[in-house]
Every structure is written in C-alpha cells, then in structure tokens.
Amino acid sequence: MFEKKATTIAEQIAQLQKRGLTIQKTELAAHYLSHVSYYRLGEYWYSMQYDKEQHLFKENSKFEDVVALYCFDGELRILLFDVIEKIEISLRTKLIYHLSHEFDPWWFQNFDLFYDSKELVKTLANLEEELSRTKDLTIKNHYKKHADDLRFPPAWKSLEQTSFGALSKLYGNLKHTVKSKDIIAIEFGAVNHTYLPSWLQCIAQIRNYCAHHSRLWNRNLPGSPKLLGAPPNPWVADVPKQHEFQKLYVHLCLMKYLLNIIQPENTFTERLHGLIEKYPNVDPNALGMKPDWFNEPLWSS
C-alpha cells in the first residue's frame, strides 16, 4: 500500500538540499514551490539526478536551472500553441470547403466516405456533445430556426466547434477514393494522402500537451510521422532518423513546413531561435535540435 505524508514547503526545500540540489535563495524556491507544485517541478529536475531511486542530484545541480527549464518550457508551449492554431484553422477551412463542394455540407455524417465507422461514431458523439454545450449564438440560432432538421448543422457551423484532434481523425479516416483527401494533402505540400494524416496526428498530440500545460522539454513523443523522400517545398538537409522521431525537433520541422505554406511571412524561426538563446542553460539536444538548424532551407525560407 502506498503511504506517504504531505510535506510542507520548508520540508521540501530541506529535502532537495539534502539530496544535493543547490538552492542559493530559499525565498525564491519557496515562492516557486508555493505556485508550482513539487511534483510538476520534479519533471524538470529529474534529469539532474544521477540516482533516480534515491533521488540524488548530480554535482552542480541548481534550483535556478530547474526554474529556467520550467520557464523555457512554458514559453515554448505558448509559441507552439500559436503556430498550431494557424495549422488547425487552415485544416478546418480546407476540410469544410473541399468536402462540402465535393459532396454536400453534411459529408462528415456520411459513413460511406469513411473507413472506420466505429471511429466516426466516436467523433460524431464528441461533436454532438460540443454542440450541445456550446454558447455560440450561431449554433443556438440554427437549432432554433431549423428545429425540424435532425441533422447536425452544416460543416461550416458544426466543424468550427470541434477540436484539432477530431479534425485530424476525420481527415485520416476518409477513404482514399475521396478526391478532396489528396487535394488537401497537395495544398499542404504533402504530395498525397499517405503522409499528411501522420503529421496532423503528431501535431494534434503536441497541441494537447500545450493545452494541458504538460512538459514538452525532454519528453519522448509517441507519434511517428511519415516523412516525404523529396518534399516539393524547402525541407532540411540533415533529416532526423527514425530513432530521433521521439524528440520534438522533427515535429517542429513539420509545423514549420506547414506554416510556410499557410503564412509564408512567418517569424517562427526567429521566435524559436530567440527563445533558445534566451535560456543558454537549456540543452537544445533535449529537444533533438540539430546543429545550425536555423540555417536549414526549411527554417531560413
């Protein structure tokens, strides 16, 4: 049975010092621990420990470096959330436009267009829940005006209420015979439907980490995107290998690739490079960053 008593902030500081973490300003440590939980900060000092069982710290481990990692990670999430928002809005726009023209505004309810009917049922159930609790006047007025229509509101209304994750699942679940699936892939520089679903799923996962304030720094990511052999738009010469896909860098590259299409005059490179330079004690290798990444054709375009 797990038995562990809660500790005071003073006890937490004393315990960290006993384990070898240098804390020069106990007032600073007390301030952070009163606003950011010991458990959450522990995700950032974990890599500083040479003995993970006894929680003993390596020599020269400092609380100030823990704070720097935490602040860097927070700013990284804000930056990526901003980038992903643009990708999400673009994907939503393309799905609504192309499929509503190829079929009709209720294509997302048409089971004949999708491979996995069980997955579509889940997506539609989540969408129904979102629509039922939304305060959006467009949706409320639609249901009031069309009370006799038992369908969802049309795509341009309904899909504005759903998440990036649901949008990526809708796209990936479309049958390959749906022409719009390839059209959207081509417009995003992904050549055909083979590659884009994995990109979107990986980015949606990172979006969820950002939305829930979860650690991105030094995290092993679960997604494994399929990379194009010869992308039609600027890419990286030093392509990450398969074993490097668990790190953030390859996912950052995919975001930048899509963003260069969506917003050609973007400042993603400058903002990311500036953030890394702002925190010199943060090891870029923990993100899988390549040397001189910012000079790659992808990042300098």
UniProtKB/TrEMBL annotation:
The scientific name of the source species is Flavobacterium silvisoli
- Identify this protein by name: Abi family protein
State one Pfam family annotation: Abi_2
Q: Which domain of life is it from?
A: Bacteria
